[in-house]
Amino acid sequence: KQEVTQIPAALSVPEGENLVLNCSFTDSAIYNLQWFRQDPGKGLTSLLLIQSSQREQTSGRLNASLDKSSGRSTLYIAASQPGDSATYLCAVNPPGTASKLTFGTGTRLQVTL
Amino acid sequence: KAGVTQTPRYLIKTRGQQVTLSCSPISGHRSVSWYQQTPGQGLQFLFEYFSETQRNKGNFPGRFSGRQFSNSRSEMNVSTLELGDSALYLCASSLGLAGTEAFFGQGTRLTVV
Fold first, then answer.
1. Which pLDDT does position A94 carry in this prediction?
2. Which chain B residue shows the shortest CA-CA distance from A37?
3. Dist CA B30 CA A63 (whole Å)
4. 8 Å CB contact of B107 and A95
5. CB pairs < 8 Å spanning A and B
6. HSE of B57, CA atoms in CB hemisphere, 13 A
7. What's the rounded Cα separation, in Å, for the pair A15 and A82?
8. Confidence class for position A98, pLDDT limits 50, 70, 90
9. Exposure string over A51-86, b if 16+ CB within 10 A, otherwise e
10. In the Cβ-directed half-sphere of B10, how many Cα atoms lie within 13 Å?
11. DSSP secondary structure string for all residues of B82-93
């Protein structure tokens, strides 16, 4: 059974810092890995999608990497801003399914002024 | 283009009642998946529909059911509500092909009293 873990569970950093969020999964047989952000009480916003054949994806200040063989992904946020404060979730999509995501436990990020 | 629309946004129901939640996917998307989010269990997969057929089902009791219509809109029904069904219910829309990106709605907050 696939299990997805995110470390740390919570993180507080001052504005302007670069930071890394970690995601690990137990079964390397995945189609893709997706990173989301969730604001309190809201839905999920897709940030980056990495296919199993890719090593990384970039969007603006965000960079996500994937090491499928070791079951790890990282989300790098450059020059953090207070608006980045949210919960970040990673999710893996196992083969044989199109939209059945297994989610991690999330990292709650607070960027302070 | 319009995103994923979930209605209603908030619901308060009494134990024993039933409830129906609705999800309209992004135009052109044929897959709708449903998830339950609670503070204790995180995000858990309920089921996935593709072209009006249930393709995958999570580990939830039979009180949870769903369907998808020919226009890809989906409904989720929960019968005989229990206090533990209080949660944020999220639906995700995708093309339904393996490895494609999932886009989430804002969710329906269900409170059972």
1. 81
2. B104
3. 29
4. no
5. 79
6. 12
7. 6
8. low
9. bbeeeebeeeebbbbbebeebebbbebeebeeebbb
10. 3
11. -GGG-EEEEEEE
